Amino acid sequence: MSDQDSSASASQTEEEFEGEMDEEMDEEMDEEAEGEGEKDDKHRASPVPSLSSFSSSLRAVIRIKQKYQAIKKRRQELALGLAGVGTLTGAPARTSPKIFTFDGVTPSAFSSLSSSVPQRKKRRRRKRVLYPNGGGCRAPPKQERSRAKYCLYLLFAIVFIQVYNAIENLDDHVLRYDLEGLEKTLRREVFGQQGAVEGLLSHLKDYLSTYVHNKPLVVSLHGPSGVGKSHLGRLLAGHFRSVVGETLVLQYYVLHHCPQEADALQCARNLSALISEMVERAEEEEKIPLFIFDEAEHMHDEILDALKQLVASKQSNEYLNAIYLFLSNLGHAHITKHMLHNSSSISASGRHSNLVKELTPILRNTLEKLHLLWTEADILPLSLLEKGHVMECFLDEMTREGFYPDHTNIERLAGEIEYYPAVGGHEYSQTGCKQVVAKVNLL
User: Fold this and answer.
1) Checking CA distances to 271, which of 226, 255, 319, 422 falls within 20 to 30 Å?
2) CA 170 from centroid of its chain's CA atoms
3) Alpha-carbon dihedral 101, 102, 104, 110, rounded to 10 degrees
């Protein structure tokens, strides 16, 4: 169908639509007029016109007018809609109204129509800022930076440097005494005393890792004859002589330095003076001295009293920075009895540290009754030596003397040592390694 035909048909349809609308409106107005006429006739028939008849006619006129305006408005809207569709299809503008058809309408037209409609942007509602009465809008005051903050940062830096320097100095202090080398020496040359060696090294590491002490380190080693007490003391003395010097290590044998009981008071005075001189020298050199008292079971009460005063003294720091080591066989009966009665549980656990924990309270109760000096000491018991440990003692001594370490010969020599009755598969030596040196010298 051509554009001319479509436009002609559209104009014809519009004219017919307008005619129908005019007829419809005329019919409605005629009906309203007839109704009003009938009402007027009725009112005329009445002899006296009333106010109600006048108001009814006025209402009829108003209704007719409203209907006329509504019909007119509807016709205008239809005319505008038809004119808009005609512009979308590309038809020329006409004064007469057009009827909408779907001919020539493409989807792009609808998209362009929808895009041409402006969309309202949602505006964000801004929060109102309330100001005090009479204050107005003022800028916030500029805060001044406090100098105390920088002082605090500087204080943190100083404390960190001091702590770091203290840690480094403590490491240097521990390295000065070469505790790792001491541990290797003790594990290599002390047989069957792993628990006591670990306890002694633990006390030394804790004490030597700091400068400030509230009491001197006092360690007391107890065990039967021949278990290695004197040998352990000689190893410690030799190690500390190589570290702090000969003048800061004292090995005190009571039977040698003070054999007579009548001289006990004078020996106690001389010992106190010697210890005071050594601790003062150690304080000047910034070192910790070592005092070893072997065969402490033979020490007189006067000497024990003097040592008790030195150990518990808090007059100055130099007396607090010292190590006291006591070696004795006090309480050896308790150690022997405990090991023979609990050898099966010891073998099951396989830990020498458990033996130390079980024997320590027993020995402490016994020693504190003898003298108050032992209340200031950390007690470490030394266990009995088995046959295997005695064989290790023979091997070490024969190697030192230059003998060929024949296993058959070592086993024969170890068999000549007296042992307790076997309990729980263990044979404990009655004399330990005390006879080893004498038997090797007879070879």
Assistant:
1) 226
2) 25
3) 120
What DSSP designation does 102 have? Answer: S
End-to-end CA distance of the chain: 142
Cα 239 to chain centroid distance, Å, stands at 40
Q: How far apart are CA 78 and CA 72, in angstroms?
A: 10
Nearest to 296 by CA among 288, 304, 284: 304
As given in the structure block, the two tokens for residue 397 are 């001594």
Give buried/exposed letters for 415-425 (b at 16+ CB in 10 A, else e): eebebeeeeee
In three-state secondary structure terms, 140 is: coil
Distance CA 127, CA 124 (A): 9
Give residue-wise pLDDT tens across range 226-281: 999 999 999 999 999 999 999 999 999 999 999 888 999 999 999 999 999 999 99
In this predicted model, what pLDDT tens digit does every residue of 93-118 receive, in sequence order?
445 555 555 555 555 554 554 555 45
Strands laid side by side in the 217-222 sheet: 249-253, 290-294, 323-328, 217-222, 378-381
| Residue 70: partners with Cβ closer than 8 Å, 6 or more residues away | none
β-strand partners of 428 = 386
Length of the chain: 443
Beta-carbon count within 10 A of 330 CB: 19
The strand ranges marked E within 232-330 are 249-253, 290-294, 323-328
Residue with tokens 């320590």: 360
Amino acid (1-letter code) at residue 245: G
In the numeric block, the tokens 């408005």 are attached to 73
CA atoms within 13 A on the CB side of 334: 18
| Spatial contact of 191 and 227, defined as CB atoms under 8 Å apart | no
d(CA 251, CA 307) in angstroms, rounded, equals 14
Q: How far is CA 322 from the centre of its chain?
A: 37
